[in-house]
């Protein structure tokens, strides 16, 4: 079992544990973490409120999901009368947009454009309606919408993704 003296710089502790295999100044000074920010529950609820406001304005019955930057579910809402498959589809679209850092429509377009190999990408749902949520240029999560159909799902998701803009 390794214990670290927390007063040591992180790279020194990693060197002591034998976890940092590089040598020289560049390797020792290289960062061992990268910044990551995730949407909060309060932020996710704002996104869902915006999604349902847009859907209701257009009389669309939807399910919507918000995931964090790693694609894990933060919040979900299903309208009364939404079709049974829409919850799973909304979560899949959101997860796709978060993990790939681009709208899920991009992957639908790849497949429709003759690149069916994208269907083999694990845990990806290449259907329009998932949009990343970015704050200050950093993807903090994504929103997925299902039930309004194709471009309408994207319209709702795009509008909702703006709800946390600074």
Can you describe this structure in just a few lines?
This protein has 166 residues and is an alpha+beta fold. It contains 6 helices and 4 strands; from the N terminus they run αααββααββα. It folds into 2 domains: 34 residues, no CATH class; 124 residues, Haem-degrading domain (Beta-Lactamase, 2-Layer Sandwich).
Describe the protein in words.
The chain is an alpha+beta fold and 166 residues long. The protein has 2 domains: 1-34, no CATH class; 41-164, Haem-degrading domain (Beta-Lactamase, 2-Layer Sandwich). Helices cover 39% and strands 16% of the residues. It is globular.
Q: So what's the overall shape?
A: globular
Query: What is the CATH architecture descriptor of the largest domain?
Result: 2-Layer Sandwich
Determine the structural class based on helices, strands and strand pairing: alpha+beta
CATH class categorisation of the largest domain: Alpha Beta
Q: Which percent range describes the beta-strand content? A: 15-25%
The biggest beta sheet is recorded as:
4 strands, antiparallel
The arrangement of helices and strands along the chain is: HHHEEHHEEH
Mean pLDDT, rounded to whole units? 86
Question: What's the alpha carbon Rg, rounded to whole Å?
Answer: 20 Å
Per the CATH scheme, the topology name of the largest domain is Beta-Lactamase
Side-by-side strand order of the widest sheet: 2-1-4-3
């Amino acid at each position: 079992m390794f214990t670290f003296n927390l007063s040591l710089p992180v790279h020194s502790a990693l060197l002591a544990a034998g976890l940092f295999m590089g040598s020289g100044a560049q390797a020792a000074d290289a960062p061992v973490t990268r910044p990551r920010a995730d949407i909060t529950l309060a932020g996710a609820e704002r996104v869902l409120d915006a999604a349902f406001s847009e859907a209701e304005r257009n009389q669309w019955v939807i399910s919507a999901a918000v995931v964090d930057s790693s694609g894990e579910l933060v919040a979900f809402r299903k309208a009364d009368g939404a079709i049974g498959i829409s919850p799973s589809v909304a979560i899949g679209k959101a997860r796709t947009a978060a993990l790939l850092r681009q709208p899920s429509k991009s992957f639908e377009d790849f497949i429709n454009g003759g690149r069916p190999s994208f269907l083999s990408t694990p845990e990806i749902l290449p259907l329009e309606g998932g949009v990343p949520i970015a704050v200050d240029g950093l993807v903090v999560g994504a929103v997925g919408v299902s039930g309004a159909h194709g471009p309408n799902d994207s319209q709702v998701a795009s509008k909702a993704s703006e709800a946390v803009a600074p």
